[in-house]
């Protein structure tokens, strides 16, 4: 059975908020559990937030840990598509 851990992303994943979140996620790496980021609360995501998600995806791949983003809003998905990261990140849309 695959172990999973769900973490809630903050309302804003921006240059001003990524560092505490990054530290929390990195501390969970030792558990070797697949991570699900619940994005339901995310209302604002800037370039630094997207860079963090891409960096974590790359780190997790090396560690053989899967990362999935859950409850993505339509606006966030549009941002992912605009930047081309929708092809890289595994995510599911929020049920509206």
From TrEMBL:
It comes from Orenia marismortui. This is Anti-anti-sigma factor. Gene3D superfamilies: STAS domain. InterPro entries: MlaB_ABC_Transporter (IPR052746), STAS_dom (IPR002645), STAS_dom_sf (IPR036513). Pfam families: STAS. Residues 5-96 form the STAS domain.
